[in-house]
What does this fold into?
Amino acid sequence: MAPTMLTRRVLPLGLSLLAVVGLSACASHPVDLTKVLRVTGVSTGYFDAGIVEGKKNKIVPTISVQLTNIGTEPVASVQMIAKFNRIGEAEEWGSAPYVRAIGPEGLAPGRTGDPVVMKCDRGYTGEQPRADLFHHSQFVDVRVELFAKYQAQNWVKMGEYKIARELLTQ
It folds into this structure.
């Protein structure tokens, strides 16, 4: 049976429509992370990064946070990054690698995720005991800015915190 003129016109149109609907369903809608996630469980301090350069102690600014979904929909695929600045200095002093804060499995509304720990790639070193590094004449307090992004959206600032002058054991 030969295809009719109507079948030859309708079939491609139907397939095109099906493809558009399918792609629309796969595309994600924009999510304002500042409105659906709250930064909770904030803990800051200096992590003991061990011995470097033979016999110098090294401590690095560190922040641990949790994200709580305060929205009405699950949120998935969120990355975070931390930018560290020495207080009083305008330019970035150090950063932490990108971390997956919420995986593809998502975070349900009302739920709080696991702790996300970000350690600066720079720190302070000295031959004195670690706790004494806080009293060194060249020690400058550090603040951290946290940024998050949902899937391929732009980074948004989630908060800013001063790093506490205390040693972290974990």
Remarks:
- Confidence is low (pLDDT under 50) at residues 15-27.
- The longest strand covers residues 37-52.
